Amino acid sequence: MVAVSTLAAVGSAIVVAGQTRAENAPAGAAGTRPGTVPTPVPAPLGPHSPLRDLAAGRGLVVGSAVDVPALSATPGYAAELGREFSSVTAESAMKWDAVEPVQGSPDFTAADTLVAFARTHGQVVYGHNLVWYQSLPDWLTNATLPDAQYGEVLRAHISAEVGHFRQAVWAWDVVNEPLAEDGSLRPDLWTSHLGPGYIADALRWAHDADPDAVLFLNEYGAEDVNAKSDGLYRLVRDLLAQGVPLGGVGFQLHLAPAGVPARLVENLRRFTALGLQVAITELDVRVPVPAAAGALARQAEVYLAAISACLAVPGCVSFTVWGFTDAVSWIPAAYPGYGQACLLDPTLAPKPAYWAVAGALRHAATATPP
Ligand code: XIL
């Protein structure tokens, strides 16, 4: 039986999916290979400790999606990101349309900027994403190729991108959003041309390009025990049975205040029981705007439920919000009529949700001696 990685085991040898691997949790820093740098000693906690310090004692990284242009364009954004977070995820800069707008001419400029930022600020980098049905370059969506050639194109993309970021990215969302709501495989470009085997192939190609990276599948709407997460569970169990190098499952958690997943902890635990790591990868909690009285307090309860669930599950190694300030957030564009989904307001002042997350991390840090 495989052992489940625990937060206490971060940085030591961990058994994942039947393979003994060292250094496969995000214990490192500085955007380098986890484990090749010393595990940071948790800083003594003060009354205003940032989230990253509050989480460090539990071996948990706390991350945010990053809009790379905002690092230079939005006052205070970079400083706050560096201060509060120990992990970064590119909101767009590592997606296929960003890194290969012209076939065969990769452009990693924006993503490299983020990796350099992470290195300077002692952060790990979570890679997002390699295979998705969205954010594909036009040359690919407009192409009409023989089926087998889609496999060649996909293999070349994965090899190039994972190879470029070897030594810099600790984990990859190898396949993003592979499932339909009923738990079956999404009928997208990849399943239609390559069949269901594309997921195992993508994981193997990513593993070949960086054998040390932890390879995730990432999904939305699968946070509760439901038809979609049942399908996800069957999928990952089958992949593991085939010996496919899958290391973790990411749960996005784009939530509305009414949408607290009642069985989130139970759901996360059934995945870690398979020997996998789990991560909260894209948390945000949108509210109808203008926000009604009490809406931000209710939002804070949802953030609290999410961080508490992660803390309750050994093997939940990473907690990432999809944007940290309402000044730079995808929500108003993606969900018209909604906004204010983040931990900090547009002036970068902490909202009730920030204090809820900080309080939960502080409680966990003081309850668990390092
Ligand atoms: C979103 C970005 O936030 C937007 O800026 C972009 O226009 C579209 O993609 N699930 C994912 C993320 O996995 O990549 C998506 O990010 C949000 C939903």
Rounded Rg? 19 Å
Average of per-residue pLDDT values: 90
Q: What overall form do the CA principal axes indicate? A: globular
Total E-strand runs: 13
Strand order in the largest sheet: 3-4-5-6-7-8-10-12
Beta fraction: 15-25%
Distance between the termini: 28 Å
Please summarize the sheet with the most strands: 8 strands, parallel, barrel
Bound molecules: (3S,4R)-3-hydroxy-2-oxopiperidin-4-yl beta-D-xylopyranoside
Helical segment count: 14
Q: What is the percent of helical residues?
A: 25-40%
Low-confidence stretches: 1-23, 27-41
Give helix and strand order, one letter per element, not per position: EEHEHHEHHEHHEHHEHEEHEEHEHEH
Class from secondary-structure proportions: alpha/beta
Describe this structure in words.
The protein is α/β, with parallel strands linked by helices. The protein contains 14 helices and 13 strands. The protein has helices at 51-56, 68-73, 77-84, 96-99, 109-120, 138-141, 147-164, 189-194, 198-209, 227-241, 264-272, 295-311, 331-334, 352-367, and strands spanning 14-16, 19-21, 61-66, 87-90, 124-131, 171-176, 214-219, 248-251, 254-255, 277-285, 287-288, 316-321, 338-339. An eight-stranded parallel beta barrel has the order 3-4-5-6-7-8-10-12, surrounded by five helices. Strands 1-2 form a two-stranded antiparallel sheet. Helix 11 links the parallel strand 9 (254-255) and strand 10 (277-285). The structure holds (3S,4R)-3-hydroxy-2-oxopiperidin-4-yl beta-D-xylopyranoside (XIL). Residues 91-92, 176, 252, 282, 330 line the site of (3S,4R)-3-hydroxy-2-oxopiperidin-4-yl beta-D-xylopyranoside.
